[in-house]
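re: ur msg from earlier - yeah i can do the 2-phosphoglycolic acid complex, just paste it... oh wait u already did. ok heres what im feeding in:
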Amino acid sequence: MIIANWKANGTLTSNLAWCNELNKLLSNSDFSDIGIAPSHIHFTQIQKMFEDSSLEVGLQDIDFNGGAKTGSISASMASDAGCKFSLLGHSERRQLFNEDDDLIKTKLQAAISNGIKPILCIGESKECLKSGKTRDFLKKQLINVLSGIELIDHAVIAYEPIWAIGTGNTPAPKDINSIHEFIKDVVQSSSANNIEPKVLYGGSVSHENAESFFGEKSIDGALVGGASLKANPFADIVKIYRKVKRK
Ligand code: PGA
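and the outut:
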């Protein structure tokens, strides 16, 4: 699956142009394997644009409950509005909004119980990478959030090294593949029902480097930030994904 993470970008006008362009670029109207996570305020606009198609529209974050929580969108409100998936624990949420693993776990439980597919984001910092502790760190993030949880079988993990997000730097495809194998093992042994998840890679994915990633067996797709803001490079990434993975 290829997911566009638009972050806090987009206007009603630019979104409309983006959707029309994607429609033209994918002229066979095959929208399977594509997800879009627009800002909350643009969710319904994008959902209407792709009504009756297999394209999934999700959110970049949800809250675990509702009520007296000014500014929040609860998992049950998201579900009621037709949200298909939610990113959870993106490194920007962890860093800018002080989200920790305990909070992310409550969000993941709320997503699952409201029928929303969780896309759990994990990833190490540059310092962690340099100190050689990446695997220990990722394992801790996964176990803190997933232990004791009955995962749904289409649960997804997004491996996004913090140092690769928006920088143009990426790990080598072989190294990502080996981390993804590790993530699948850890999730299988730490979730209550031993589910092996799909694992997406995120961090400076572009139409230029996408092929090198999708050629690796355990890279099941991508979470795309910057390169998803224009329809053209995003459609190229989708086409490359299909060419490589649907062989
Ligand atoms: P990027 O962002 O593709 O711009 O590096 C990815 C993300 O933050 O999900």
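cool cool. Residues 5, 160, 165-166, 202-205, 223-227 surround 2-phosphoglycolic acid (CB under 6 Å). ping me if u need the other ligands too
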